Each structure stands twice: as C-alpha cells, then as structure tokens.
Amino acid sequence: MGTWNSPEIEAIKDLYVETDIPSDTLIKDKVALAKFTSQLNARLSGEEAFNEEEVAGQLLNLRKNGRLPRIRD
C-alpha cells in the first residue's frame, strides 16, 4: 500500500497524459489498469507500490477534484 504524496500524484498525472486513455476507460479495462499500475510503480523510486484499486481510486479522486487533465476519445 503506497502513500499519495506530491511526487506520486505528479507521476500518476504525467503517466495518465502519456497513456492518453480516459480515466473511465482505464479504470474499467482490467488489463489497461494493470499495465498502467505497473508502469506507475516502475517510475516511482520508493519501496511502496500501489495496487490497481489504489490507482483507480486516486484517478477518480483527481478527476472529481478537477486535477486530472482531460483526455478525449
């Protein structure tokens, strides 16, 4: 279980933009979410790793708070 601090939040936002998959689609597609989570964990230098549920929750939280950039289909 990881902790969402500023560097982790910036990393998830950057990867989200690079991935170019809308959050709803990303969260619903188990394979895409697993790949996204794996890529995020690889970018983070800490020992803590996030699971798919934590990543999905953070994506939703960022979107609801207007902190996630818009991605269009």
Instruction: Give the amount of beta strand, in percent.
Output: under 5%
Number of strands: 0
Supply Rg.
Answer: 11 Å
Structural class based on helices, strands and sheet pairing: mainly alpha
Distance between the termini: 31 Å
Q: Which consecutive residue ranges, at least 5 long each, have pLDDT under 50?
A: none
Mean pLDDT: 92
Structure, explained:
There is one protein chain. The chain has 73 residues and is an all-alpha fold. It has one domain (6-64). Helices cover 64% and strands 0% of the residues. The protein is built from 4 helices and no strands. The chain has helices at residues 6-19, 23-28, 30-43, 52-64. The termini are far apart. The mean pLDDT is 92.
Describe the structure concisely.
The chain has helices at 6-19, 23-28, 30-43, 52-64. It has 73 residues and is mostly helical.
Map the helices and strands:
Blueprint: H1 6-19, H2 23-28, H3 30-43, H4 52-64
Helix pairs in contact: 1-3
Features:
mainly alpha
